[in-house]
Amino acid sequence: MIEKLIKAIEAKDAPVVVGLDPMLSYVPEFIKEKAYAEKGETLAGAAEAIFNFNKGIVDATYDLIPAVKPQIAMYEQFGVEGVIAYKKTVDYCKEKGLCVIADVKRGDIGSTSKSYADGHLGKVQVGSKTYAGFDADFATVNPYLGTDGVKPFVDVCKESDKGIFVLVKTSNPSSGEFQDREIDGRPLYEHVADMVNTWGEECIHGDYSDVGCVVGATYPEMGKVLRKLMPKAYILVPGYGAQGGKAEDLVHFFNADGLGAIVNSSRGIIAAYKKDTYAKFGETGYAEAARQATIDMIEDINSARR
Amino acid sequence: MIEKLIKAIEAKDAPVVVGLDPMLSYVPEFIKEKAYAEKGETLAGAAEAIFNFNKGIVDATYDLIPAVKPQIAMYEQFGVEGVIAYKKTVDYCKEKGLCVIADVKRGDIGSTSKSYADGHLGKVQVGSKTYAGFDADFATVNPYLGTDGVKPFVDVCKESDKGIFVLVKTSNPSSGEFQDREIDGRPLYEHVADMVNTWGEECIHGDYSDVGCVVGATYPEMGKVLRKLMPKAYILVPGYGAQGGKAEDLVHFFNADGLGAIVNSSRGIIAAYKKDTYAKFGETGYAEAARQATIDMIEDINSARR
After folding, report:
1. Using a CB-CB distance cutoff of 8 angstroms, which residues of chain A are in contact with residue B171?
2. Choosing a second label site near B216 at 20 to 30 A (CA), which of A53, A119, A268, A277?
3. B77 to A124: CB separation less than 8 angstroms, yes or no
């Protein structure tokens, strides 16, 4: 699956992923009003609003970008109805030819991780039939439980040609509380990075593995070290834009081949119309604002990797 | 919420939780046949089968136990239909007066963790209305992202009178890979335990906090240390039974008051009819087998804490 993602990054010349994290506060009033008129101020109404919002963003950006990253928490907050909107979003993005990175940060003991991996990436058997539950292309995985929590995802990557990004160093302010603590003279995140290499060994295609990692743009010095430590791992980079990461911070997340990293922006794209720079588009032009913000982001990121 | 759980544990004299982790392979043929006859060999058919299976287990055990712990991965594997069955299971268990511990192991950066916390435990605003998405009583939380990933859950505990169990030392074989690594002379899981104390400080009711922890029955020596290190934290103990933990291993998970721990069994209860000990109940008696296994487990666990 990593080859497919790389091909898409090269075709669009854009190592960029749009985060579909539709907080209701980002959704323009006219979309919410229409959804509530149809389904009431209900969970179903909220789900309709966020799906229609996503659809506008995707329609306005899919020709520019290789991938989207829906953050499932933003859907789960609306219960079952939200999860239905999540699935509709995944399906719609795949119809548009986009790689879908499910930001689910799952991870559990072996048999349970297998169910997560089957549900989000792979297939499940029901009697004589097999089905794909959510059928994303990639998923993010939490490593706290160690190899037997991650391995079932790696197995599904091999069986179903999918990929994962394992949390190594996250973008949030308190990520260092545990991740930076020194073990045998090296921070925990480097030990996790070593395991990313191990887990990824069996699914290398060309220069990269289906097992990638997450390293936040907000920690550029650590990104530089981690890039070298995991030469075969694609880095999914959150934290650009709204969280404070700048393009110049991202230079060292890329390998010499100009590949090896894909940078996410969520709020900076999907809520661009709320920023002064893109205010001229107005609420009704939220999708065009997202398109312009995506174009600007791609230019910014490409300046960093060249 | 911890007070409600403790009251239920004392009323039933059973520090025991039944794990509702319905793998299809545990579900008796007659239940699957009926579900597939109604809804086909589809994801909806599988969801119908697991919900009906759960209902049988709950009907046969709810008078004996204070709480259930549905493992959401087992539902997510069936996609949206599975999540619907999860929600029906939560609702049904609450109707029966049970505390519901959502084993979701969520954890993300701050704003995202807030959405998870709102969705699984708290409430979400839709226009002028508020709704509870999944509305469990407790959730399990992964600490890898540090305080800003956990704090939103703690806030929801305070706002909505709910509780959490933070992963400290998990029951799986490779949990030590990161969790046992020494930092300043103490294993990582002890550092996480320190933070469990900190996170829980603001929501102590009586002798215990709404912020509990997860420590596997499979690591009794560590449980002994962790029990003392976190005197106010209720310990949710997985790993008893099928994973190898024995009652005698659990003695030190309890405080001197006989409280402080609640032990989970999933497979050992819900698939009891597949074990020699309970084979006499047969497939059609799977619920009665679960009841007997629950009675036996309660007796076993109570022998350990007295």
Report:
1. 109
2. A119
3. yes
Q: Do A174 and B145 touch (CB under 8 A)?
A: yes
Rounded CA separation B1/B7 (Å): 10
Cβ partners under 8 Å of residue A184, min gap 6:
B181
Q: How confident is the model at residue A304 (pLDDT cuts 50, 70, 90)?
A: confident
DSSP-derived secondary structure for A40-99: -SSHHHHHHHHHHHHHHHHHHHTTT-SEEEEBTHHHHTTHHHHHHHHHHHHHHHHHTT-E
Given A105, A151, A224, A275, the catalytic residue: A105
Instruction: Return the pLDDT at B27.
Output: 98
CA angle B125, B129, B134 (to 5 degrees): 60
Average pLDDT over residues A146-151: 97
Q: What is the pLDDT of residue B304?
A: 82
Where are the strands (E) in A107-207, listed by range?
124-126, 129-131, 138-141, 163-169, 182-183, 186-187, 204-205
Chain B touched by A195 (CB under 8 Å):
yes
Look at residue A248 and tell me whether its pLDDT is greater than 90: no
Q: How many residues does chain A have?
A: 306
- Contact yes or no for B177 and A43 at CB 8 A: no
Residue of B27, B42, B87, B112 for testing the chain A interface, max A β-carbons within 10 Å: B112
Cβ of A144 and B32 within 8 Å?
Answer: no
CB of A145 within 8 Å of a chain B CB? The answer is yes
pLDDT tens column, B57-82 = 999 999 999 999 999 999 999 999 99
Q: CATH number of the domain that B27 lies in?
A: 3.20.20.70
* Banded model confidence at residue A34, pLDDT cuts 50, 70, 90: very high
pLDDT tens profile B6-64: 999 999 999 999 999 999 999 999 999 999 999 999 999 999 999 999 999 999 999 99
B41, B71, B144 member nearest A126 (Cβ): B41
Mean pLDDT confidence for B121-137: 98
Residue A242 has pLDDT above 80, yes or no: no
E strands, chain A, in order: 16-20, 67-70, 99-106, 124-126, 129-131, 138-141, 163-169, 182-183, 186-187, 204-205, 208-209, 211-215, 235-237, 261-265
Of B71, B110, B133, the CB nearest to A76: B133
- The predicted structure's pLDDT at residue B246: 82
Q: Which two tokens stand for residue B185?
A: 């002379």
Contact B89, B135 (CB under 8 A): no
Which structural domain range is residue A109 located in? 2-305
| pTM of model > 0.90 | yes
Number of domains observed in the structure of chain B:
1
Tell which A residues from 223 to 252 touch B, by Cβ distance under 8 Å: 238
Tell me the chain B residues in contact with residue A178 when contact means C-beta distances shorter than 8 Å: 143-144, 146, 188, 191-192
User: A173 to chain B: which residues are within 8 Å by CB?
Assistant: 148
**Does residue A224 have an active-site annotation?**
no
Q: How confident is the model at residue A258 (pLDDT cuts 50, 70, 90)?
A: very high
pLDDT value of position A306:
75
